[in-house]
Amino acid sequence: MINGHGDDIHHYTHPITSNFSSNVYCGIDHQELFQRLGSKISCLCNYPEPAPVTLETAFADFFQVTGESVCVTNGATEAIYLIAQAFRGRKSAVWAPTFSEYADACRLHHHKISYFYTYDSLPTDAEVVWLCNPNNPTGEVRTLSKLKDWISCNPHKLFVIDQSYEAFTLHPLYSVCEAAALPNVLLIHSLTKHFAIPGLRIGYLTGHPEILRDIRVQRMPWSVNALAIEAGFYALEQHLSLPFDLVSYLNEKEKFVNAWKQTRMVDVWDSDTHFFLLRLRQGKAAALKDFLVREYGILIRDASNFRGLDESFFRLATQTPRENKMLIQAFMHWLQQ
């Protein structure tokens, strides 16, 4: 779904001053990273490693796993497509509603796709199971103990767990070491979300070496560019720590959610992370989105194209207190039209 994602700023000539549409916190100070990349700009004059083995080894050392347990990719999206390619023609089950690229990648590589909505409804014939945890767009985190029990009861299915938003929740998730020891679990990770650098495209896969061996051979040479590799080393030097206080950020999310509930014009889904799903009690999300861009330069995510959701749904990623307050005020203005 090339044109079906959030953060579609490129579609608008009107300047966007507040972006709630992608699950990225826009309040991060990037100056240190910019200086680091600026000091390495001459790397653009040379090819990077055909496969980013040096960075993979550094990640493996950080997580205390073997280098064969890490596969660095051009963002989490490349990881998704590499998995679908490696298991071409299989039967895939996608836990919906969720990120569209899982199904899109599976279609491209001729998987037979089914959808399910609860643990108990997982198709018995599924060979590859796709889920996002924390889930996009709902923000829900599946309880780790229950998830582990579920996976252990299905040892012949491969579970692809997208943990792109793992840094934005306080709930426990699968660790890299756990995944590396399991023959049927793959974890997807994203530095794009972690450090708010979606334009740079850097992510990685972790899992059992035998699974990753089949995936790594699908990766094109030089798929990860030199500046992205430098950003990966920078992230490790920062110990993959968020460049802001997560507890304070999640507290701000709760204040933001409560402000939405007080409008009495939306239903808000419980979320375990910084973004959350809403449903308008009247009107369409597309109309609200267009109004906010036109009148306020605010961009939200129309969530109507997520499977299982309709035209009343939209998603927000919490921003600064000032921006959050402005969005609520703009929403009230829209209601008064």
List the helices and strands and how they pair.
Elements: E1 18-19, H1 31-39, H2 53-63, E2 70-73, H3 75-86, E3 91-95, H4 101-108, E4 112-116, E5 128-132, H5 144-152, E6 158-162, H6 176-180, E7 185-190, H7 191-194, E8 203-207, H8 209-216, H9 226-237, H10 246-262, E9 266-268, E10 275-280, H11 285-296, E11 298-299, E12 301-302, E13 313-317, H12 321-335
Parallel strand pairs: 1-11, 3-4, 3-5, 5-6, 6-7
Antiparallel strand pairs: 2-8, 7-8, 9-10, 10-13, 12-13
Helix pairs in contact: 2-9, 3-4, 10-12, 11-12
Entry summary:
With 337 residues, the protein is of the alpha/beta class. It contains twelve helices and 13 strands.
Instruction: Give the neighbour order of strands across the main sheet.
Output: 2-8-7-6-5-3-4
The share of residues in extended strands comes to 15-25%
**Named CATH topology of the largest domain:** Aspartate Aminotransferase, domain 2
How would a textbook summarize the main sheet?
7 strands, mixed
Q: Given the structure, what is the number of helices?
A: 12
Bulk shape: globular
Quaternary state of this entry equals single chain
How many domains? The number is 2
Element string (H = helix, E = strand): EHHEHEHEEHEHEHEHHHEEHEEEH
The averaged pLDDT comes out at 95
Residue windows where pLDDT falls under 50 for at least 5 positions: none
Derived structural class = alpha/beta
CATH architecture level-2 label of the largest domain: 3-Layer(aba) Sandwich
Describe the structure.
The chain has a 7-stranded mixed sheet. Strands 9-10-13-12 form a 4-stranded antiparallel sheet. Strands 1-11 form a two-stranded parallel sheet. A hairpin with a 6-residue loop joins strand 9 and strand 10 (275-280). The chain is built from 12 helices and 13 strands. It has 2 domains: 9-27 and 244-335, Aspartate Aminotransferase, domain 1 (Alpha-Beta Complex); 31-237, Aspartate Aminotransferase, domain 2 (3-Layer(aba) Sandwich), CATH 3.40.640.10. The longest helix has 17 residues, at 246-262. The chain has 337 residues and is of the alpha/beta class. Helix 3 (75-86) packs parallel to helix 4.
